[in-house]
Each structure stands twice: as structure tokens, then as C-alpha cells.
Amino acid sequence: MIAKLLRQISFASLLFLIFFPLQSRAGGDEQLTGARRIGLGNAYTAVSGDFWSMFANPAGLAGLDRMYAGVNVERRFGLAELNYGSGGFAMPFNELHYGGIDFSGFGSKNYSEARLGLTYATSVIDRVRMGVKFNMTNIAISSQNSAVNYGSAFAFYVNAGVNVKLTQDLNLGFSVFNANAANISKELAYKERIPTVLSLGLGYQASDKVLLVADVEKNVAYPLAFHGGVEYKINDFITARMGVGTQPIVFNAGLGVNWRDLQIDFAGSYHQQLGFTPSISGTYRFGKSITEGDKK
């Protein structure tokens, strides 16, 4: 049954499973979301006060000063079968409590994943922020001509994280993806566990213009991986980014454009075997600020 199923899944999806083990070896894996994050080599665990943090370390959502809405789209390796899209909304309830809701979809008619997430973050004390995210994911598989439906399954899993401001310019972040070790495929032809991934990161604001970030990541099923990146603010409107990751080796670069309350981010990642993946994100900030001035 499994062999027949694999023969029916599109060739593009199989390539993705083989060559991108840390991101899509199993259904329900963490999907890299946000062009800024991708441009920084996926080193986002220590980033705080940022809308896209709820897709990485939920504690990083704490520190938002206004309401945010954002969307992200990618065409991985230039293949329509690997299209990925996401979006969400986040807001501060006050200076201690923050919340967000997001959705994402990946794949094609033969193999698809859809996910809904709810994030809550709080400032425990002045320098410590904690967050938790509840995820519901659905995976559906059918034959290549859609004549046979191999089934679909839901899974519920939890992400958690903490962000600590060690100094004025140095942040430490830790996050766990799938902390409850959830399984998928209860209604499919096979059983598979959503990988649990541990991430530890540092973020250093070297100056008003330069941000340095680095993560070490351990998927419980694979070797330790490293991610690192640098962000340089060219002026008030344009920001440049570069990054790299291992397991597998991927090179990243990106550009951010800011205009008033709108931010557009572009990024590209290059996999040595599979090629180039473009991504674009848009984030809009609105509503009344709860703080005096903007938080970076």
C-alpha cells in the first residue's frame, strides 16, 4: 500500500522529501515562513517583537506595539507542486499579553497540508518573554489523477518558546516545535510522527544598522544543524540580508522595503541540488500604539 502510494505522489513532491529532509521529510513538519526569516538563513529563534516570530519562536510575538497583518508566498524550486502560502494577524492586548492567529497551505491536489495556528505570548518580567502556539494540521493524499483518495488526517501539536534579553543588545531564544510529540496519519495507510525540533539562538544588535543572528537546531531524527544571518539597514527604506544554513546546505539572501506602515520583504534561497526558491512577504502595521515609540 505504501509503495503504491509513493508511486502516485508527484515527482516534485518526492524530490522535496528526498533532498530537504529537515523541512519536509514527514508530513506536518515546520515550514519556513516569512521572507525576512528566510533571508536571515532561518536564524529567527532570538528575534523578538516581530510578527513572523509566531511561525518560529512564539515568545518573539511579545513586544508588538500595534496590530499587524501579513501574508507570505513561495514557489519552492520553481515548481507549482511545491507552492506554499501563509498569512496571519497579531495584536497586543496590552503591554504584557499578545495574541495571533495564522494559517498556511502547502502542496498540490495530490499531496497537501493545511494548518491553523493560535499563538499567545506574554512578558513574564521585563527581560523574559514566553510564548505558546497551538496548531491544527490536516494532511490529504490522493492518486495522481485524483481517482483514488488515500485519505486525510488531522493532528494537534504545540510549539513553545522563551526569549530572554541578556543585555540591551543581546537576545537569547529557545523554542520547541511539536513539544507534545504528536502523530499524524491515524486515518491514513501508515503512521508517522511529526518531528520534534529544538532550537537555540542568539541575536545581537551590533549597531543601529546591523543585526547578527545565529541558531543551532536539533531535529530529534537528524544531525545538528546551524543557521546564521546578518541584516544591514542601508537607510530608512531599504534593508539587506544574507544567511546560510546546514542540513542541507542552503544559501540565502533578501531585501526589505519599508514605506510608512507597510513592509515588503523579498528573499531567495539556493539549494545545491534543487535550485532556487523565491519568496515574498508583506506586513502591514495599523491601529493605535500601546507603547511610546516603536520597538525594533
Q: Please state roughly what percent of the residues sit in beta strands, choosing from under 5%, 5-15%, 15-25%, 25-35%, 35-45% or over 45%.
A: over 45%
Number of separate helices: 4
Going across the biggest sheet, name each strand in turn: 1-2-3-4-5-6-7-10-11-12-13-14-15-16
Could you estimate the helical fraction of the residues in percent? under 10%
What is the residue-averaged pLDDT? 86
Overall, the morphology is globular
List keywords for this structure.
mainly beta; Porin; 296 residues; two-stranded antiparallel sheet
Describe this structure in words.
The protein is mainly β. It contains four helices and 16 strands. The N and C termini lie far apart (52 Å). Residues 1-25 have low confidence and may be disordered.
Please provide a brief summary of the model.
With 296 residues, the chain is mainly beta. It is built from four helices and 16 strands. The protein has a 14-stranded antiparallel β-barrel.
Q: Secondary-structure map with pairings?
A:
Blueprint lengths: L1 H7 L2 H9 L1 H4 L10 H5 L27 E9 L7 E10 L4 E11 L3 E15 L2 E15 L6 E17 L4 E8 L5 E2 L7 E2 L3 E9 L4 E10 L5 E9 L4 E8 L4 E10 L2 E10 L3 E12 L10
Antiparallel strand pairs: 1-2, 1-16, 2-3, 3-4, 4-5, 5-6, 6-7, 7-10, 8-9, 10-11, 11-12, 12-13, 13-14, 14-15, 15-16
